[in-house]
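hey team, just a heads up i'm posting the complex here instead of the shared drive bc the drive is being weird again. everything in one block, sequence lines first with there labels, then the predicted structure for the whole assembly after. its two chains so it's a bit long, scroll down
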Amino acid sequence: MLWDIFCRVIDNYGDLGVCWRLSADLASRGHSVRLWVDDATSLAWMAPDATPNAEGRVQFNTTTGKVVVRAWHDALHGLDLPSKVWVEAFGCELPEHFVKWAHQSQTNSHSTPCPVWLNLEYLSAEAYVEKSHKLPSPVMSGLLKGRTKWFFYPGFNENTGGLIREAWALEKLDAGTTPGFDPSSNKPYPQKSTLFCYEPAALAEAMQLASLNSAGHQWQVAHGRGALAFENALRTLPSRADQTSHQFFPPLSQTQFDQLLKSSDLNFVRGEDSLVRALWAGKAFIWQIYPQDDGAHGPKLNAFLDWLQAPDSLRRFHLSWNGLSLEPLPEVDLPAWQACAMAAQARLMQQMDLVSQLLQFVEEKR
Amino acid sequence: MKVAQEIRVGNVIMQGKDPMIVLRTEYSRGGRGAATVRMKLKALLSNMGTESVFKADDKMDQVILDQKECTYSYFADPMYVFMDTEFNQYEVESENMGDALHYLEDGMSVEVVFYDGKAISVELPTSVEREITWTEPAVKGDTSGKVLKPAKIATGFEVPVPLFVNQGDKIEIDTRTGEYRKRV
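-- predicted structure starts here --
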């Protein structure tokens, strides 16, 4: 089945990261995807398996499906096939040329059924997600007035659309990594933390806490804003004679990033895509939620921590890390935090993944 | 045309050829400043109920209907009775009252909305002042307003309020979102 997926990169890497994983997962299940992106430059490192095709468009092939990346303004023409499903990621509007093309195609061929039109929403553990998941959204203006869009929400329980969980990616993850931290051991051991964050106010404090580990601590710092924040925090700390070390990583492919998380004892992740990957890594993690001017991130974080059943120390660490509390960071309690992460992962594994649910929903609405 | 976040309980919007009365709106903040509005709607011609969700900036046609300023008089199950300044009484089905019931109190001033000469709903002012009838004791020193706790007003409606708000305090509530605005 042919899909059109639309992605506008607002900032950072999450928009494209989620859309690429969704597209690749659909392709692995035999579907063809036209992925419309306004800025696909990050795909060069995020998805190195995707390469330019004969027409110069970036393409990713699986044994039965494919993803072709289309530039946002790259209009369709008469010979292009109409798709069966449209997915607007995170409420991005369809490109104007596409709306005109869709309107024209429909006018020319009244017998062709309308595609199933979905709005894939942001991930949240808040209660409204369950209430709004799979609700219709009648289109009341513009050329496509009269059609119906459907809201599809990813989420953490069975009343939502679930999370992207590609079987092939998780198999690779399980095969390619070491077991890491042994929660049954009480001995101090050198810890590894992966850091992928914005600019948390408590970063220097966390680095200081980590340096207290007598067996040593290694920071694996992912590239981007977090790396700059780490460098800045490093300068504010007194020079150390402890066992702390750090390594800066270049931009990694999604597969490499997933493996990095799996190889760590504690993952600091940010935004939406890397939170999901931290859950699949099954290691203790701290989430930096995307900060919003209106403070909407506070209730979102608390709703997630409630779902996570976060122990008190993990909750307090999250609140301070996200600037929602002025309390000092509590001590890292890896055994408790990892047990919590594993339990959360086990709960999620009981649910149907997002792409399977999406396919089921599309079948219902076609 | 209006955008979804401007639509209020009691408004009527056109969905295709169907005038739909808005019985409930729920505003939710998504990621990165995006927001959605979930609406409970009822078709005025068929009386069929439905639920829909819109992006907060989705455009829609609001049907401008006759309105009259009235005060709430009494409840005669299943009708809510309102009276205008000339003592005419108008009855609105409880089902059509929607979220207005969260704030309704004796003598409250509302706009009664008419369709084909029949009172079909009420529109509230965009904000109301109500007394907190129950909440946990206030926390001294926290004036940031970022952390919220549950509180109730006389109708039993629950409003999240900042930690510094006390039982007995009067607060201003945004009737479109059901959110606390400020302490009065």
